[in-house]
Amino acid sequence: MKKYLPTFIAGFAAAVLSIVPGIKSFSCCLIVPGATILALILDQKVNKNSERIAIGKAVMFGLLTGLFATLFITALDGLITFISKTNDFIEALPQSESLIRELNFGPMAEESLKLMKQMAKQIQTTGFSPLYIFILFTSNIITNTIFGVIGGLVGMGLLNKRKTEQ
To answer: Is the whole model's pTM more than 0.85, yes or no?
Structure first.
């Protein structure tokens, strides 16, 4: 585990930044890749390692940073939702509902709206919706691991280039 501690720390940092309003919209495409690059830098500093970063290590760091970020984002979002009994989903539901009705997707859209309203009601009454947490985790695990890997590869390129120039 000590070997991957930088990914844990960077994943937590990414999660904290990802729940800040205004910054959270940059979570997947900037914060998680940046956190992966930070994890690679921290790893080199902690281990006093000046070797070139291998592709496998860059990909693994990206996957783990994305995974840790997802776990922390889901936990922090769930906790804040539990305490406040509201979140961005609740705020955006009226606009989502009108958009879905405008597009007239038929009976499947009505079923989706029922589920969305059920999730909203659960959140507003108890502060928790298992379906909301599942959807949040699933969407974040996909995007954060993909962008984490991209960040790992970009970080590998930047850090290896820096080593070559020295």
So the answer is: yes
